[in-house]
Amino acid sequence: MIALRILGGVFAALLLVSAVARFRRRRITRLNLIISSALAVGLGLLAVAPGLFDPLFDVFNFRRGGGQRLLAVLLFGNVVLLLLILRNTTETDVVRRDFQLLMEWMGTHSLPAQEVEALPAGDRVVVVLPAHNEASNVASVLATMPEKVDGHPVVPLVVDDASEDSTEAAARDAGALVARLPIRRGGGQAIRVGYELGLRLDAVVVASLDADGQHDPAELPLLVEPILRGEADMVQGSRVLGSFEKESRVRHLGVLVLSWLATLMTGTRITDVSNGYRAIRAETLQKLILRQDQFWTSEVIIEALRHRATIKEVPITVRARASGETKKPRPFKYGWNFLKVMVKTWLR
Predict the structure, then answer these.
(1) What global pTM score does this model have?
(2) Which of 40, 72, 105 is the last residue of a domain?
(3) Is 116 inside a domain boundary?
């Protein structure tokens, strides 16, 4: 026991010295210095004069002998550790959210004002295409985009997720509006920027599709027209109801399983929860709270259902990627991360 007390005293002294040194170098805040110092002093007193803590042990009926007091120290230590972990998690979440907001602000302010002023008048359908290194595909996707849907002008908006190739130039040359994120954060961050810009562009419907050629822009009316007719608040494309090309059995099975789980969670039948080809009424989109940077497609669906949105699925075609490499991880990793996002969104 003496050796354990000596070890605890040495650790307490090192903790105190380290905290003071880091504070002087401005590595930690004054609050963290106070917390570290309090822990160091408490541990030091426990090592030097454990009898000072007898009243606390007596309150919880930890008597001398039989290692009960040592057990009490371990329990109290675990409680303190848990509180510190919760505090650190909270701070990390705040910093992460602040960084997200900064990236979204930079993305939304990267859209040239003169391009917005040149847009056709009338109620618009804004189509968001998140893109990372899609210079070889984005122009052909934009070339097949319809100019109008049910009389509403279609405005393609490419959100360049810090591409390292000429995606931005290719999209702009093809006639799209282009916003750019300075740091790659994932499709979820890009889609949030696109959604925000779509609302600022006075869209009546905001749609989204992939920039890699897997989605057919000619099918856009299938997703937009039910919203314009008042039949749905959100229309989700489904390869399960439609058709798809060149998809591994493992990935297709994953789509079915994840969609079944989403149906079970929400009570609404969903056949293709991982499909990013969808359209949303502007009024509905304004209500959604979206936070995921990756594996975001299920978040939009579950969040929309939380707000009692009417969702309709329509059959679409998902083609093989036109060129380039997929940005998705291996199927099992993708499925696990996708499932975590579904659960986190459902638990909000």
Answers:
(1) 0.76
(2) 105
(3) no
